[in-house]
UniProtKB/TrEMBL annotation:
GO terms for molecular function: mRNA 3'-UTR AU-rich region binding; NADPH binding; quinone reductase (NADPH) activity. Residues 11-323 form the Enoyl reductase (ER) domain. This is NADPH2:quinone reductase. Keywords: NADP, Oxidoreductase. PANTHER family: QUINONE OXIDOREDUCTASE PIG3-RELATED, QUINONE OXIDOREDUCTASE-RELATED. SMART domains: PKS_ER. One of its GO terms (cellular component) is cytosol. Coiled coil: none annotated. The keyword NADP applies.
Amino acid sequence: MATRIIVKQTGGPEALESETFDPGQPGEGQVRLRQTAIGLNFIDTYYRSGLYPAPGGLPMCLGGEGAGVIEAVGPGVEDLQVGQRVAYGTVLGAYASERLAPAAQMVPIPDGVDDATAAAIMLKGMTAHYLLHTTYPLKSGETILFHAAVGGVGLIAVQWAKALGATVIGTVGSKEKAELALAHGVDHVILYKEEDVARRVIEITGGQKLPVVYDGVGKDTFMGSLDSLAVRGLLVSFGNASGAIENFNVGILNQKGSLYITRPALNAHTRTREELLWRAGDLFEAVANGTLKIQPPQTFKLADVAAAHRALESRATTGSTVLIP
Protein backbone atom coordinates (compact mmCIF):
# COMPACT_ATOMS: atom_id res chain seq x y z
CA MET A 1 0.00 0.00 0.00
CA ALA A 2 1.09 3.56 -0.70
CA THR A 3 0.73 6.66 1.48
CA ARG A 4 -0.72 10.04 0.54
CA ILE A 5 -1.62 13.32 2.21
CA ILE A 6 -5.17 14.55 1.75
CA VAL A 7 -7.36 17.47 2.80
CA LYS A 8 -10.92 16.55 3.79
CA GLN A 9 -11.84 20.01 5.06
CA THR A 10 -9.97 23.25 4.31
CA GLY A 11 -8.05 24.98 7.07
CA GLY A 12 -4.57 25.39 8.51
CA PRO A 13 -1.70 22.91 8.32
CA GLU A 14 -3.57 20.73 10.79
CA ALA A 15 -6.03 19.95 7.97
CA LEU A 16 -3.41 17.75 6.31
CA GLU A 17 -4.14 14.07 6.93
CA SER A 18 -2.23 10.91 6.03
CA GLU A 19 -3.90 7.81 4.64
CA THR A 20 -2.90 4.58 2.94
CA PHE A 21 -4.29 3.71 -0.47
CA ASP A 22 -3.80 1.50 -3.51
CA PRO A 23 -2.84 3.62 -6.56
CA GLY A 24 -3.90 0.78 -8.88
CA GLN A 25 -2.60 0.06 -12.36
CA PRO A 26 -2.16 2.74 -15.03
CA GLY A 27 -4.93 3.16 -17.56
CA GLU A 28 -4.82 4.48 -21.11
CA GLY A 29 -2.13 7.13 -21.44
CA GLN A 30 -1.04 6.85 -17.80
CA VAL A 31 2.06 5.81 -15.87
CA ARG A 32 2.47 4.65 -12.29
CA LEU A 33 5.26 6.44 -10.43
CA ARG A 34 7.22 5.55 -7.36
CA GLN A 35 7.89 9.06 -6.19
CA THR A 36 11.29 10.03 -4.85
CA ALA A 37 10.78 13.76 -4.25
CA ILE A 38 7.79 16.11 -4.17
CA GLY A 39 7.94 19.86 -4.68
CA LEU A 40 6.37 22.19 -2.09
CA ASN A 41 4.70 25.32 -3.48
CA PHE A 42 2.58 28.20 -2.23
CA ILE A 43 -0.32 27.07 -4.41
CA ASP A 44 -0.50 23.97 -2.20
CA THR A 45 -1.34 26.20 0.76
CA TYR A 46 -4.00 28.01 -1.29
CA TYR A 47 -5.84 24.74 -1.94
CA ARG A 48 -5.39 23.61 1.68
CA SER A 49 -6.74 26.87 3.12
CA GLY A 50 -9.60 27.17 0.64
CA LEU A 51 -8.27 30.34 -1.00
CA TYR A 52 -8.45 28.38 -4.25
CA PRO A 53 -11.34 25.93 -4.68
CA ALA A 54 -10.26 22.31 -4.89
CA PRO A 55 -10.54 21.02 -8.46
CA GLY A 56 -13.01 18.15 -8.28
CA GLY A 57 -13.95 19.03 -4.71
CA LEU A 58 -12.84 17.53 -1.40
CA PRO A 59 -11.21 15.37 -0.30
CA MET A 60 -8.17 16.10 -2.44
CA CYS A 61 -4.53 15.06 -2.54
CA LEU A 62 -2.37 18.18 -2.68
CA GLY A 63 0.76 18.94 -4.68
CA GLY A 64 1.40 19.43 -8.37
CA GLU A 65 5.16 18.93 -8.69
CA GLY A 66 7.31 15.86 -8.27
CA ALA A 67 9.86 13.38 -9.56
CA GLY A 68 10.14 9.64 -9.50
CA VAL A 69 10.69 6.37 -11.30
CA ILE A 70 8.16 4.82 -13.66
CA GLU A 71 7.02 1.44 -12.33
CA ALA A 72 4.36 0.65 -14.94
CA VAL A 73 3.00 2.15 -18.16
CA GLY A 74 -0.54 1.96 -19.45
CA PRO A 75 -1.84 1.26 -22.94
CA GLY A 76 -0.92 3.85 -25.54
CA VAL A 77 2.25 5.06 -23.78
CA GLU A 78 5.08 4.67 -26.26
CA ASP A 79 7.72 7.30 -25.44
CA LEU A 80 8.26 6.39 -21.76
CA GLN A 81 9.39 3.13 -20.20
CA VAL A 82 9.59 1.30 -16.90
CA GLY A 83 12.62 2.36 -14.85
CA GLN A 84 12.85 5.81 -16.44
CA ARG A 85 13.24 8.86 -14.20
CA VAL A 86 10.69 11.58 -14.90
CA ALA A 87 9.47 14.84 -13.38
CA TYR A 88 6.35 16.97 -13.72
CA GLY A 89 5.11 20.37 -12.62
CA THR A 90 1.35 20.69 -13.15
CA VAL A 91 -0.33 17.42 -12.11
CA LEU A 92 -2.34 17.50 -8.87
CA GLY A 93 -1.98 14.60 -6.46
CA ALA A 94 1.76 14.76 -5.83
CA TYR A 95 1.68 14.36 -2.02
CA ALA A 96 1.99 10.58 -2.25
CA SER A 97 4.63 7.85 -2.15
CA GLU A 98 3.17 6.37 -5.35
CA ARG A 99 0.68 7.71 -7.88
CA LEU A 100 -0.89 7.44 -11.29
CA ALA A 101 -0.22 10.33 -13.65
CA PRO A 102 -0.78 11.27 -17.30
CA ALA A 103 2.19 10.27 -19.43
CA ALA A 104 1.79 13.42 -21.54
CA GLN A 105 2.80 15.54 -18.53
CA MET A 106 5.93 13.55 -17.68
CA VAL A 107 9.32 15.00 -18.65
CA PRO A 108 12.41 12.74 -18.71
CA ILE A 109 15.05 13.89 -16.23
CA PRO A 110 18.42 14.31 -17.95
CA ASP A 111 21.58 12.72 -16.62
CA GLY A 112 23.35 15.02 -14.19
CA VAL A 113 20.14 16.28 -12.56
CA ASP A 114 19.13 14.45 -9.38
CA ASP A 115 15.51 13.73 -8.53
CA ALA A 116 15.29 16.21 -5.65
CA THR A 117 16.53 19.04 -7.85
CA ALA A 118 14.13 18.08 -10.64
CA ALA A 119 11.20 18.02 -8.21
CA ALA A 120 12.26 21.35 -6.78
CA ILE A 121 12.51 23.25 -10.06
CA MET A 122 9.88 21.97 -12.46
CA LEU A 123 6.94 24.14 -11.42
CA LYS A 124 9.06 27.04 -10.21
CA GLY A 125 11.48 26.96 -13.12
CA MET A 126 8.82 26.71 -15.81
CA THR A 127 6.96 29.52 -14.04
CA ALA A 128 10.08 31.69 -14.28
CA HIS A 129 10.36 30.68 -17.95
CA TYR A 130 6.90 31.80 -18.97
CA LEU A 131 7.11 34.97 -16.87
CA LEU A 132 10.33 36.10 -18.55
CA HIS A 133 9.81 34.68 -22.05
CA THR A 134 6.06 34.89 -22.64
CA THR A 135 4.08 37.05 -20.19
CA TYR A 136 6.57 39.88 -20.62
CA PRO A 137 9.40 38.90 -23.01
CA LEU A 138 12.31 40.51 -21.25
CA LYS A 139 14.78 42.51 -23.32
CA SER A 140 18.44 43.15 -22.61
CA GLY A 141 18.96 46.50 -20.94
CA GLU A 142 15.58 46.65 -19.19
CA THR A 143 15.22 47.08 -15.44
CA ILE A 144 12.69 44.94 -13.56
CA LEU A 145 11.40 44.46 -10.04
CA PHE A 146 10.96 40.91 -8.76
CA HIS A 147 9.30 40.49 -5.37
CA ALA A 148 10.39 37.70 -3.02
CA ALA A 149 13.70 37.47 -4.85
CA VAL A 150 14.98 34.53 -2.81
CA GLY A 151 11.77 32.50 -2.87
CA GLY A 152 11.38 29.33 -4.90
CA VAL A 153 10.48 31.12 -8.13
CA GLY A 154 12.50 34.21 -7.29
CA LEU A 155 15.94 32.62 -7.02
CA ILE A 156 15.50 31.03 -10.43
CA ALA A 157 13.90 34.05 -12.09
CA VAL A 158 16.47 36.63 -10.99
CA GLN A 159 19.33 34.53 -12.34
CA TRP A 160 17.54 33.99 -15.62
CA ALA A 161 16.68 37.69 -15.91
CA LYS A 162 20.34 38.58 -15.43
CA ALA A 163 21.32 36.10 -18.13
CA LEU A 164 18.85 37.85 -20.45
CA GLY A 165 20.64 41.14 -19.81
CA ALA A 166 18.26 42.79 -17.34
CA THR A 167 19.05 44.95 -14.34
CA VAL A 168 17.25 43.28 -11.44
CA ILE A 169 15.75 44.92 -8.38
CA GLY A 170 14.62 42.38 -5.79
CA THR A 171 12.66 42.63 -2.57
CA VAL A 172 13.53 40.49 0.46
CA GLY A 173 12.51 40.34 4.10
CA SER A 174 15.85 40.30 5.92
CA LYS A 175 19.52 41.24 5.63
CA GLU A 176 20.44 37.55 5.43
CA LYS A 177 18.10 37.12 2.47
CA ALA A 178 19.54 40.28 0.94
CA GLU A 179 22.99 38.70 0.92
CA LEU A 180 21.58 35.60 -0.77
CA ALA A 181 19.86 37.73 -3.41
CA LEU A 182 23.04 39.65 -4.18
CA ALA A 183 24.95 36.38 -4.46
CA HIS A 184 22.49 35.24 -7.12
CA GLY A 185 22.85 38.31 -9.31
CA VAL A 186 20.31 40.82 -7.97
CA ASP A 187 21.66 44.32 -8.64
CA HIS A 188 19.62 46.27 -6.08
CA VAL A 189 18.01 44.79 -2.97
CA ILE A 190 15.07 46.40 -1.18
CA LEU A 191 14.27 45.36 2.39
CA TYR A 192 10.50 45.62 2.08
CA LYS A 193 9.91 45.54 5.85
CA GLU A 194 12.13 48.59 6.37
CA GLU A 195 11.96 50.54 3.10
CA ASP A 196 9.24 52.00 0.91
CA VAL A 197 9.49 49.86 -2.22
CA ALA A 198 8.13 52.37 -4.74
CA ARG A 199 10.26 55.19 -3.34
CA ARG A 200 13.40 53.06 -3.61
CA VAL A 201 12.49 52.06 -7.18
CA ILE A 202 12.15 55.73 -8.10
CA GLU A 203 15.57 56.43 -6.55
CA ILE A 204 17.24 53.48 -8.28
CA THR A 205 15.77 54.34 -11.69
CA GLY A 206 16.31 58.08 -11.45
CA GLY A 207 12.56 58.64 -11.55
CA GLN A 208 11.97 56.55 -14.68
CA LYS A 209 10.25 53.67 -12.88
CA LEU A 210 9.83 50.25 -14.50
CA PRO A 211 8.29 48.58 -17.56
CA VAL A 212 7.32 45.48 -15.57
CA VAL A 213 6.96 44.24 -12.00
CA TYR A 214 6.72 40.53 -11.18
CA ASP A 215 4.69 40.09 -7.99
CA GLY A 216 3.98 36.73 -6.40
CA VAL A 217 3.29 38.21 -2.96
CA GLY A 218 -0.13 39.74 -3.54
CA LYS A 219 -2.00 41.87 -1.02
CA ASP A 220 0.96 43.34 0.87
CA THR A 221 2.87 44.49 -2.21
CA PHE A 222 0.10 45.29 -4.68
CA MET A 223 -0.06 49.08 -4.39
CA GLY A 224 3.70 49.43 -4.13
CA SER A 225 4.02 47.39 -7.30
CA LEU A 226 1.63 49.68 -9.18
CA ASP A 227 3.47 52.74 -7.91
CA SER A 228 6.76 51.29 -9.22
CA LEU A 229 5.54 51.11 -12.82
CA ALA A 230 6.20 53.60 -15.59
CA VAL A 231 3.38 54.79 -17.83
CA ARG A 232 1.84 51.78 -19.61
CA GLY A 233 3.86 49.43 -17.44
CA LEU A 234 2.77 45.86 -16.73
CA LEU A 235 2.11 44.31 -13.32
CA VAL A 236 2.45 40.53 -13.49
CA SER A 237 0.56 39.27 -10.45
CA PHE A 238 1.33 35.55 -10.32
CA GLY A 239 0.79 34.65 -6.66
CA ASN A 240 -0.83 35.53 -3.33
CA ALA A 241 1.76 34.65 -0.69
CA SER A 242 0.49 37.42 1.61
CA GLY A 243 -3.18 36.94 0.75
CA ALA A 244 -5.51 37.70 -2.13
CA ILE A 245 -5.85 41.21 -3.56
CA GLU A 246 -9.25 42.51 -2.49
CA ASN A 247 -11.56 45.34 -3.54
CA PHE A 248 -9.49 46.24 -6.59
CA ASN A 249 -10.81 49.29 -8.43
CA VAL A 250 -9.75 48.93 -12.05
CA GLY A 251 -9.85 52.74 -12.42
CA ILE A 252 -6.62 52.89 -10.41
CA LEU A 253 -4.79 51.63 -13.49
CA ASN A 254 -5.91 54.73 -15.37
CA GLN A 255 -5.00 57.07 -12.54
CA LYS A 256 -1.49 55.65 -12.22
CA GLY A 257 -0.60 55.89 -15.91
CA SER A 258 -2.65 53.59 -18.15
CA LEU A 259 -1.13 50.56 -16.48
CA TYR A 260 -1.67 46.93 -17.44
CA ILE A 261 -2.17 43.98 -15.10
CA THR A 262 -2.25 40.25 -15.77
CA ARG A 263 -2.78 37.17 -13.60
CA PRO A 264 -1.10 34.23 -15.39
CA ALA A 265 -0.73 30.60 -14.35
CA LEU A 266 1.59 27.80 -15.44
CA ASN A 267 -1.07 25.37 -16.63
CA ALA A 268 -2.13 27.85 -19.32
CA HIS A 269 1.49 27.94 -20.54
CA THR A 270 2.02 24.16 -20.79
CA ARG A 271 -1.20 23.25 -22.59
CA THR A 272 0.52 21.17 -25.27
CA ARG A 273 3.28 18.62 -24.92
CA GLU A 274 5.41 20.68 -27.32
CA GLU A 275 5.17 23.73 -25.08
CA LEU A 276 5.80 21.66 -21.94
CA LEU A 277 8.94 20.09 -23.41
CA TRP A 278 10.14 23.49 -24.69
CA ARG A 279 9.92 25.12 -21.27
CA ALA A 280 11.29 22.12 -19.36
CA GLY A 281 14.05 21.66 -21.93
CA ASP A 282 15.14 25.29 -21.64
CA LEU A 283 15.08 24.92 -17.86
CA PHE A 284 17.22 21.79 -17.72
CA GLU A 285 19.63 23.27 -20.28
CA ALA A 286 20.02 26.43 -18.19
CA VAL A 287 20.85 24.29 -15.16
CA ALA A 288 23.31 22.16 -17.13
CA ASN A 289 25.20 25.12 -18.64
CA GLY A 290 25.42 27.01 -15.35
CA THR A 291 23.03 29.84 -16.23
CA LEU A 292 20.96 28.75 -13.24
CA LYS A 293 22.72 27.73 -10.05
CA ILE A 294 20.23 25.74 -8.02
CA GLN A 295 20.66 25.55 -4.27
CA PRO A 296 20.18 22.10 -2.77
CA PRO A 297 16.52 22.14 -1.71
CA GLN A 298 15.44 22.10 1.89
CA THR A 299 13.83 18.77 2.73
CA PHE A 300 11.02 17.53 4.96
CA LYS A 301 9.67 14.02 5.27
CA LEU A 302 6.28 13.64 3.63
CA ALA A 303 4.95 12.69 7.06
CA ASP A 304 6.09 16.11 8.32
CA VAL A 305 4.21 18.03 5.64
CA ALA A 306 2.34 20.18 8.19
CA ALA A 307 5.65 21.52 9.50
CA ALA A 308 6.76 22.20 5.93
CA HIS A 309 3.59 24.22 5.27
CA ARG A 310 4.14 26.25 8.45
CA ALA A 311 7.72 27.01 7.45
CA LEU A 312 6.66 28.08 3.96
CA GLU A 313 3.81 30.31 5.12
CA SER A 314 5.97 32.00 7.77
CA ARG A 315 8.56 32.76 5.05
CA ALA A 316 11.17 30.82 6.99
CA THR A 317 12.34 29.09 3.80
CA THR A 318 14.54 30.26 0.95
CA GLY A 319 14.78 28.75 -2.49
CA SER A 320 12.99 25.44 -2.97
CA THR A 321 11.69 22.83 -0.56
CA VAL A 322 10.90 19.19 -1.27
CA LEU A 323 9.05 16.46 0.58
CA ILE A 324 10.66 13.02 0.69
CA PRO A 325 8.27 10.04 0.83
